[in-house]
Amino acid sequence: MGKPAVVWNPSFLGYDLGGDHPLNAVRLDLTIRLATGLGVLDGVDLVAPEPAADADIERVHDAGYLAAVRAAPVSGWDVGHGLGTADNPVFARMHEASALVVGGSLAAARRIADGSACRAVNIAGGLHHAMRDHAAGFCVYNDCAVAISWLLDNGFDRIAYLDVDVHHGDGVQAAFYDDPRVLTVSLHQSPFSLWPGTGLPAESGAAGAEGTAVNLALPPGTRDQAWLRAFDAVVPSLLRTFRPQVLVTQCGVDTHREDPLADLALSVDGHAAVYRRFRDLAEEVAEGRWLALGGGGYELIRVVPRSWTHLLATVLDRDLDPDTPVPADWVDHVARLAPDRRLPASMTDGAPTDVTAWGGVTTDAVDAAVRDTRHAVFPLHGLDPDDPRD
């Protein structure tokens, strides 16, 4: 298979929900600037996507919903379908900007499918909350689900979707809840303490697809080492049993301890450790095929650019030393945008990411969450939920 692919076009910045909205496109621009400044993208031919066609978006969305999205910018605010809300405000060329994000994820999927890339990444993607007939959680069209649906029609019949956003990957789960060809795994903050209020372990797949929806709901305050222990106790065993042909990951970074919208406590170092796990698992179970998408992340300056630069570096096998200094020209640029902000000096938060393996005990809330998830789905895959070796 070919070299890893990076999908990018400055037109992605047109997905603009407004200057005061948490999902500010500046996070994408600052990520690309940082990755470029550190040499991560040296010699990489960036893939410029085309907007997705209606037929592809309608793989997971109703035609009437697309018509509403198109009409919304000229028809006023009361358009229904979750549009015109504080979370999902109407903006100019909303359909076109949203279709371009979907097109970016499709471009990445196509390169994996035709063998021209072993891995591909679209940091503008990961809009995992959009439902069949309505917008939700800052997401207009669900590029994750569209890309998975396209892959299912183009040579693949087992796909694993791993979602590490702090919010439950509800839209993708809903799209494939009754499809045994897709394993959806979401690690997120407990729905008892965070929107959208779904993602309990008991949500494990519809009849005929039992065990193909996996939810690991973690307590507020979970830090890197406990989060990674939970991941290791659930995800690898399921992937080794399911044997996906492609690994699709939603790499939201709103799990960071500085994120303003949620309450987990990961670091940039923890995020980098997660990406390395994705890469290793793709190599082990999916012949290296890895489609990486962005997602949430609302600490726009200190967190998202560094975390997703680590993601780009991992996809490209250009892993960064955590102590790598942040380039002076990037700091100068950001200082002009946000003169009162404290800026990071390097690519690390200095957080430990070593892990003590889960041993079957439930001595704290994270271990109890692991137990609940394993008991909900491991028997459906022929695995022993109480045996740490499974």
UniProtKB/TrEMBL annotation:
SUPFAM superfamilies: Arginase/deacetylase (SSF52768)
Annotated keywords: Acetoin catabolism
Pathway participation: Ketone degradation; acetoin degradation
Superkingdom of the organism of origin: Bacteria
Listed InterPro entries: AcuC, HDACs, His_deacetylse_dom, His_deacetylse_dom_sf, Ureohydrolase_dom_sf
One GO term (biological process): epigenetic regulation of gene expression
GO terms, molecular function: histone deacetylase activity
UniProt domain Histone deacetylase: residue ranges: 21-314
Record family assignment: Belongs to the histone deacetylase family.
Protein's UniProt name: Acetoin utilization protein AcuC
